[in-house]
Amino acid sequence: MKRKLFLLAPAALLGTLTAFFNPIPILFTFLLYLFFLLKAKRFDFITIVVVVVIFTLFSESGYKAVQENRTLLSGNEREFTLSFRAGARIDGDFFIAEAVDARTGEHVMGTYKIKSEIEKKALEKESFVGRTCRLTGKLDFPSGARNPGAFDYREYLSRNNIHWMLKLDAAPLGMCGMEAAGIVERLGRVREMGIKGMSGQLPPGTVPVAAALVYGDQSLFPQEVSGAYKNLGITHLLAISGMQVTVLAGTALFAGIRLGATRERMSGILLFILPLYAILAGGSPSVIRSVLMAEILLLANILPRSFPISALDALSLSFGAHLLTNPFILFDPGFQLSYTVTFALLLSARALQAMKTSGAVLLFTGTMISQIAALPILLVHFYGIPLIGAAANLIYIPLYSFFMMPAVYILYPLSFFGSLSHSAAFLVNKGIILSERLAVFLAKAPLQLNTGHLGLPAIMFYTGAVIGSLIFWEKAQPRKRSAALLCIPVILLAVHVGIKQVSPSFGEIALIDVGQGDSILIKLPDQKGVFLIDTGGIVDFGKKEWQQRKKPFDPGRDTVIPFLKAKGITKIDKLILTHGDIDHIGGAAAIVDEMKVGEIIIPDMKEKSEVEVRIIRLAIEKGIRIREVTRGDYWQAGPYNFHVLSPGKGYAGERNGGSVSIYSVLGGKGWFFTGDLDEQAEKEIAKLFPKMKINVLKAGHHGSRTSSSEQFLETYRPEFVLISAGVNNRFGHPNTETLKRIEEIGAAVLRTDIHGAVSYRFKGNSGTFSTFLPYTGPSPEKNKIFGPK
User: Fold this and answer.
1) Would the pLDDT of 779 be above 70?
2) CATH no. of 79-180
3) Residues 144-172: pLDDT tens digits?
4) Where are the chain's structural domains?
5) Coil, helix or strand at residue 167
6) N or C: which end of the chain has fewer CB within 10 A?
7) Fold of 507-543+552-783
């Protein structure tokens, strides 16, 4: 079975998939795979039986994991004895930690809003690994995805056997004790103390890199830097993987042999040490894969005759072990990328070794293989690929391999002995800061292929294209320019995106769920224009410095941009900022910074809010045109006209009343987008435009009591009213009286706090409403609402 064990991995994969998806097509695929093994690989009957057993074993393991992944808590419990196993994360005034309920053994995510700076310092001093506390709190379901393209936190936690968020009444400081520490808890504490202690041992710029490369913790990177690494496709360099494990294991092996130990003895010692290192390094999928592979190869090194395997066999065995212990890990992007890229590189190793060329060309080819292998996974999770990714990897792989990783591994141990060279630390710190600035600069380059959400057939097509290009490349060796064959999937993707840009398409109007705020996408049919009205934003009510989070939630960056990418949108022709309130334009800076914006439209008002001033400055820096509009302004996009109905010329009143409001006929319906118009502004519009036909009204000011007045609703009698409001928001929006007034005219109400994102897809003069979450409520028969999409 040498060099054939890796052929067992597909059986393990297909068996696991039967637990999560329709088993019929998977069984059919497995039968085709058996036929392939019989005819192409000449597997004998006994080996085929082994493959079938592997398939059955992993299928049963998956079904068992699914059946056992359920909660034992009712949700009404108030008192808990919690054991914190993996430490805690404190960001600003927010505390979060995974804990185990002693009564049921169920894992929960405990959260707490820190009350004071003194309390925060007390929490930061404590170690939560192995800490047990008696606490009270309220259980609630984790938040799920509310928009297309959004990260589903509820599903993520569920796949980690966590079904509840526990909002603690008090900080986990009193009524606490430490459990008898086992080896896992002790190593967890060492890791926790090591990460915390780095800030006092290493220069500030070096700490995030050191924490990532030594302990596998990437949470210390500033948002801008971590975002840049993600956009460039180089986050794998921050994850502990095969390179670090190989270096550390090789160093330990060499040192032991030099000190007089035999290779067999040192291999045995490493078999014991490496699993401990996996715990110390955070236990990410890439760490576990690397350690499992190293363990298997070390065992083969000790028993070469009875256990002869290749690196591909070791990868297959580690894959099986990883999947058997946790079938849900199959859905983790890190797991998928780690095994897929490693498999591609190992399978291409012989062809790479046969290439008689320079190191730079080998590095480029290896980078291309990694990028191409990762392509289908990137399309599934991130809706596109960075074209600059290959170039960025060419820069950062040598930088990390020959500078950052050795520097950190040398400087960090020396820092414990007080013999850290200040000049060396200064140079390393400067080098890291410069590399991060370069990453941020490169990440702003508009070199992205964004496909939007793709269906299963498209993903299968690109997977086939990747496999085909790797086969063609290997068969083309050692001919020159064979690396061009690796570009086939990217070329196909570019053609796909290009055709999509010029093909006839539907239009869409989407009320994006940004919580307590507004954001509306208008995408016209046949690429006639893309407009975004507002971007959402979070009001922090003047938090003190200690309360501010390093990575605060930004609706523009964390909700609107993923939504746009899921739709395949990379350029906004007009960004319309209705007025200066932060809940409408707080996310605009992220949009302007990351997306192409043709023009920004704002109300013609003399007094600008601080947020408006910042956005205007950013737009000027980027050369984006700013246009101030008043009543009577309009623009045309193909056959569609957009009329500005407010603010009036010379408006000097309250900001909400001066919102940019827009009327247009789209998909055979008259739409009125109001911003935060108040009752007085509504009366003025009703007086000036009494004959205007409004079929769909975006309610002003989130459905507050001072908007959507009885007179306004009776004048226009819209069929649909859209309300953007946050779930359980502190303002009580939408107001009960407002909802009653809407109900009295017989309009269907679509609310983001209940239905998530609301979409109207249209072509010509007809269209259909849908909601991301199931729709509940009355619906006029002639305009039936379908949901979810």
Assistant:
1) no
2) 2.40.50
3) 999 998 999 999 999 999 999 999 999 99
4) 5-68, 79-180, 189-303+336-466, 507-543+552-783
5) strand
6) N
7) Metallo-beta-lactamase; Chain A (3.60.15)
